[in-house]
Every structure is written in structure tokens, then in C-alpha cells.
Amino acid sequence: MEKIMVGVIGTGFIGPVHIEAIRRQGTAEVLALSEVNYETAKAKAEALGIPKAYGDYKELLADPEVQVIHICTPNHLHFAIAKEAIQAGKHVVCEKPLAMNVEEGKELVQLAQENDLICAMHLNCRAYPMVQQIKNMVENGDLGTIFAVNGSYQQDWLFKETDYSWRLEKQFSGESRAIADIGTHWFDTVETITGLKTEKVCADFATFYKTRKKPLKPVETYSGKVLEAKDYADVPIDTEDYATVLIKFDNGAHGSFTVNQVAAGRKNRMYFEIYGSKCAVAFDSEEPNQIWIGNRDGSNQIMMKDPSLMYAEAREFSSYPGGHTEGFADTSKHTVRKIYEAVRNGKAAEVDYPKFEDGYRELQLCAAIVKSAQEEKWVTVEK
H helices within the chain, ranges in order? Predict the structure, then answer.
């Protein structure tokens, strides 16, 4: 079997995550990468053991050996690169968000539908083994009718006034920050496993740091990575640190969701509780190898990840026996596994993987949530 040849564009935090996930397939090889310039690309390629380096993504797209493109750049570049990659005849795996707005997302979905190519999203949180177990529990009627869904996605990486990232700036990240960055993972995961669709939202946004201190140079250039007051510039912030969203689902269920990027002690916690007419179930991504099952007329349960106890359809997302921890990196491995299965078998194959349509769905949700927060009213999510 010939290996699938892959090119990765962007090597910040998430780029190496993709590279590791690709290499874990055994059926693919990361042949090339591109970065902001050739010097950076060459240094990254050497550090990561990748044969080819390009200082311009257009050069990578023109490489006839590369079959699949992984887009791991800041948000504002996703649309152009995805569009050009499809036009170059490449399969595409894009980081969320798919684009900067609904209009761009719609164009990419249409382009993907017109071409015989796999156009996928890296919406990996749905691929936790125990998330898949919950999905199968819902499908098999274990929860009964779903009444309510509550949850949150909390982080503390922007807890301090001196914490800074391109994600804070709308020209790079889009109209929403916290919702678009991590809230999309929560909504995609919840909608995927419950089969419900969010119909209406009512949102409240908060920006706790009206200004932040932006380093004048990359922190890494400073000895000991310690900066003084003169090394910062005060920058106004107009993206949300925090949001709460009330939800009405299409089956009549209700819900609530909170996202917070200044939550001290919460490193990367996606949490949800699903309340059904038979029982309830909860998942915490900081303890991903177990789920809580709540009962009215009996003891509550903690179900540990163990393929021998899981539904058959969920077992393929667990590579190791019970007691062997699987986490974030494994979700990317399984997401890429499903995408590459589709690449090998063709667009018409019955393979369940996150598609551009799912990325478009998240853009529609974000647009409705942002509008709701701005107008302080319930907003219907565009279909």
C-alpha cells in the first residue's frame, strides 16, 4: 500500500499535533511543510524530521507529490488556503474555524461539494473514546428522551493581563474569540453525540481585560522569558474572555453553556452533562477516561474506559485496553484515521468524519451567538 503524502501549513501549537497524528496512522507520510518564510520552514522541517520545506504555502500547493493539505495557520488564512488547495486538486484537513465568516464558509462548502475531494475539519473532541460511548448510549436509547444539556469549556491560558496571542485580535481570529476558539468544539461534540440541533441561542459576552499588555518582541527572545514594563504595549481588546449561552434544541430540550478563558486552574476543560428521561451522563475532558452516569432510583455510576465494556461502535476509538489512558492526542489520531480512510476509499464511501459542512455549521452557530450578545435577545440559528 502506497503511503498518502501530506503537506502541513503552519507549525504553531496545533501543527505538530497534526504531524504526530498523521505519523501514527502508518499509512501516511508528512512530506512537506510551509511557514511564514523559508528560514523558519527549514528550521521547523529539520526539527520535525520533514524532508521538504517551503517559505510560501503556494509552493507547497504546487508540489505534485503532496496529496493532502493540513491547514494549521491563524484563522484569517484558512479561507484562502482551503480554496486554493481544492483548486489545486488536494484533499484538505482544516483547523477550525473553517473561515472568518458564514459567507466564506458557504463558498468553501460549495467548492468542496463540486470537487471529488475529501474536505475535512479537525473537530477532534468528538473522537474521545468515552464521548463515542455516550454517542452510542444516546443512539441505543439508554438516556431516553433528552430534556437538557448543560456544560462549559474553561481555560486559564489568558488569565493574566500580560497573556497575549493573535487570537485576541479580530483581524486574525474573527468576530468571536472564546466561542469560536473552543466553544465550537463543545457545540460540535454535543450536537454530534446527541443528534440534536441548536435552534435558538441567547448569549451574554464579557471582556474582563479591556486592555492587555502585548509583548513588543517574541517572549522567547528575552533571557529567562521575563519581561519588564517597558517591553509591553497596552492594546485595547474587543473579543470576549467569557460567554454564557442559553440554548433551545430542535427536540424541545433546553441547555446552557459557559466558555471562559480566564478560569484560574482550568487548563483545558470541556465538560457537559446530558439529562435524559432514563438517566443522565457527564463527561470531563480533564478526566477523559471515565464518564459519570446519574440514576434516580439506584446508585450513580462511574464507567471507566474499557473496550470490553463499551459499545462495539465506540471501541474503534479506543486503541488500548482498560486502564491504559487515552487523551487529547488520541482524539487527533482517530480523527485523522477516519479522514484518511475516506481519502483512500473515495468521497462516496460511508465514512463518518468531520466535514466542511460541520465547519460551516459552527460558523452559523458563532454568527447567531455573536448577534445575540450584541442585540441582547434570542436569535434563531441559520439553517
Answer: 14-23, 38-48, 57-61, 78-87, 102-114, 129-139, 170-173, 178, 184-194, 312-315, 328-345, 356-375
Write a three-state SS string for 32-87. Answer: EEECCCHHHHHHHHHHHCCCEEECCHHHHHCCCCCCEEEECCCHHHHHHHHHHHHH
Q: Are residues 192 and 314 located together in one domain of the fold?
A: yes
Q: What pLDDT, in 10s, does the model give residues 94-112? A: 999 999 999 999 999 999 9
Q: What is the model's pLDDT at position 226?
A: 64
Which pTM was predicted? 0.94
Do 315 and 201 lie in a common domain? yes
Residue spans of the chain under pLDDT 70: 218-226
pLDDT for position 198: 98
The pLDDT assigned to 217 comes to 72
Q: What is the pLDDT of residue 209?
A: 97
Q: Which of 191, 179, 215 is nearest to 363 (CA)?
A: 179
Q: Which domain holds residue 55?
A: 4-123
pLDDT for the residue numbered 3: 96
Give residue-wise pLDDT tens across range 281-303. Answer: 999 999 999 999 999 999 999 99
User: Do residues 82 and 184 both lie within one domain?
Assistant: no
Phi, psi of 198, rounded to the nearest 5 degrees: -75, 120
CA distances in angstroms from 103 to 86, 119, 184, 311, listed in the order given: 17, 17, 18, 39
Phi, psi torsion values for 246, nearest 5 degrees: -85, 145
Grid cell locating 37: 518564510
Cα–Cα dist 296/280, whole Å: 9
Closest to 180 (Cα-Cα) out of 205, 210, 215: 205
Instruction: Check if the beta carbon of residue 277 is closer than 8 Å to that of residue 144.
Output: yes
7 and 34 Cβ atoms separated by less than 8 Å: yes
* 76 belongs to a structural domain: yes
Q: Going by C-beta distance under 8 Å and a sequence separation of 6 or more, which residues neighbour residue 54? A: 32, 33, 34, 35, 38, 41, 60, 63
Q: In this structure, what CATH number is given to the domain that contains residue 89?
A: 3.40.50.720
* Domain end (from 99, 123, 147): 123
Q: What would the grid cell of residue 341 be?
A: 480512510
> Do 229 and 286 belong to one domain?
yes
Residue 205, domain member (yes or no): yes
- Give Cα separations from 280 to 118, 188, 272, 276 (angstroms): 36, 19, 11, 6
Predicted confidence at residue 383, as pLDDT, reads 81
